[in-house]
Specification:
By secondary structure, the chain is α/β, with parallel strands linked by helices. The protein has helices spanning 2-15, 35-48, 63-75, 91-101, 114-117, 130-147, 171-180, 182-186, 203-217, 229-241, 260-268, 279-294, 323-328; strands spanning 23-29, 52-58, 80-83, 105-108, 123-127, 158-165, 190-198, 223-226, 253-254, 273-276, 313-315, 319-322. It binds beta-D-glucopyranose.
C-alpha cells in the first residue's frame, strides 16, 4: 500500500513538472563593461529565474576567448546557446559548433550575416532593426530643427553636424549613421558633415573626440549625432566643459539605447532625444526562443508571440524617447 502511495505521489509530482529536468542555457556576453550589454545580461539573468539555469561568460571583447567559452559550454552539455559575439563574422564558425551538437543557438545584439544563419535551422538572431533606430534619432532632430529655426545658427538652410560612430563593422554603427540623416533631408534641410569619428560605443573616448571637434569647429557645430547613449553622454561631458547647457548655450545631442543615465540627461535637458533599444524584450525573446527550440517545439505566434522573419530573425521594435514622450508616459520608457 505504502509503495503504491509513493508511486502515485511520484507520478503526481512528475505531472506537475517537479521532476522535469531543468534546462541549461550557455550565454556569452561580448564585453561586460559595455553599458547596454551589461544591463541586458541582468535582464537575461532575472528573466531566467525559474525557467532555466544560465551559465554566463564575459568574453572580454575577445572572439578567441569566446570560442573557448563556447567549447567549454558544449562540454557542460548545455541545452542551448545565447551568443553576443565579439566579432559578428565569427557567427558561421559558432553556428557550426552548435549544429554538430544539434542544439539551438540564438545570437543577440550583433547581427550575423544572413548566409551564416541559413546554415542551420536552429540558428536565430533576436535583435532590433538598426536602420529604424537611425531613422528615429534623425526624426527627433528634424522635429527640433523644424520647430527651432534659430538652431540653424548661420541661417544657411544646412544642418552642420558632427557624428560619433560606434565600433566599425557593427551593423548598428553602420546603419544608424546612414539613416540618421534621411529625416533631416526629407524635412527639407541640406546636411553637412563637419567631422565624424568613432567613439567605439564608449563615453570617455567620445568625450575626448567631442573635445577635438569643438576645438576644430566650435560654435559652427549645429548638432551632435551619436550612435549610442554612452557616446552622447561623453559628448555632453565635453560640451558642458566648453560652457554648453548653462544660460542660453545649447547644443542638440541625440543618442540611442535609452539607458538610465541617458534618461536622466534627458530630464535635465542636456540630451535632446534617444531611442529605446529594448534590451529587456530582446533578452526575454532570446530566452523564450532558446527554451522552445531546446524542447523541440516550433516557435509560433501562440507559444512565442513574435513573428519570425525569413525563418531566422526576430525583430524587437525601437521606440523614440524624448522628454515630452517620457512625461506623457508618466516618466518611464
Ligand atoms: C548598443 C550599444 C552597444 C552595442 C554593443 C548596440 O546595440 O546601442 O550601446 O555598445 O550594441 O554591441
Amino acid at each position: 500500500m505504502k509503495r503504491i502511495l509513493c508511486l502515485a505521489l511520484a507520478l503526481f509530482l512528475c505531472a506537475q513538472g517537479a521532476f522535469a529536468a531543468e534546462l541549461t542555457v550557455g550565454v556569452c556576453i561580448y564585453d561586460n563593461t559595455d553599458a547596454f550589454m551589461s544591463s541586458m545580461r541582468l535582464d537575461l539573468e532575472s528573466y531566467a529565474q525559474g525557467k532555466a539555469k544560465l551559465i554566463v561568460y564575459d568574453s572580454m571583447n575577445d572572439q578567441n576567448l569566446q570560442n573557448d567559452q563556447v567549447d567549454s559550454l558544449l562540454r557542460e552539455n548545455v541545452d542551448a546557446l545565447i551568443l553576443n559575439p565579439a566579432d559578428r563574422m565569427a557567427a558561421g564558425y559558432l553556428i557550426e559548433k552548435a549544429k554538430q551538437r544539434g542544439i539551438p543557438v540564438i545570437f543577440i545584439n550583433r547581427e550575423p550575416m544572413p548566409e551564416d544563419l541559413l546554415l542551420y535551422e536552429k540558428a536565430y538572431y533576436v535583435g532590433a532593426d538598426a536602420s529604424q533606430s537611425g531613422r528615429l534619432s534623425g526624426e527627433i532632430l528634424a522635429d527640433y530643427f523644424l520647430s527651432h529655426p534659430e538652431a540653424d545658427k548661420n541661417g544657411d538652410g544646412t544642418v552642420q553636424y558632427v557624428l560619433l560612430r560606434g565600433e566599425p563593422g557593427h551593423q548598428d554603427a553602420e546603419l544608424r549613421t546612414q539613416y540618421a540623416l534621411k529625416p533631416l533631408q526629407s524635412a527639407g534641410f541640406r546636411v553637412e558633415k563637419l567631422q565624424e569619428d568613432t567613439g567605439m560605443w564608449q563615453r570617455q573616448l567620445a568625450q575626448d573626440k567631442m573635445g577635438t571637434f569643438l576645438s576644430a569647429w566650435g560654435d559652427r557645430i549645429e548638432c551632435v549625432i551619436c550612435n549610442n547613449d554612452e557616446m552622447a553622454l561623453g559628448a555632453i561631458d565635453a560640451l558642458k566643459a566648453a560652457g554648453y547647457f548653462t544660460g542660453s548655450a545649447y547644443m542638440p545631442v541625440v543618442g540611442v539605447d535609452a539607458t538610465a543615465p541617458a534618461l536622466e540627461a534627458l530630464q535635465q535637458g542636456s540630451l535632446l532625444g534617444t531611442v529605446l533599444n529594448d534590451g529587456k524584450n530582446q533578452a526575454q525573446a532570446a530566452l523564450d526562443l532558446a527554451i522552445l527550440l531546446s524542447r523541440g517545439e516550433t516557435p509560433t505566434a501562440q507559444n512565442f508571440g513574435y513573428p519570425i522573419t525569413n525563418g531566422h530573425f526576430v525583430w524587437i521594435p525601437y521606440r523614440s524617447v524624448t522628454r515630452e514622450i517620457l512625461s506623457a508616459q508618466g516618466g518611464g520608457t
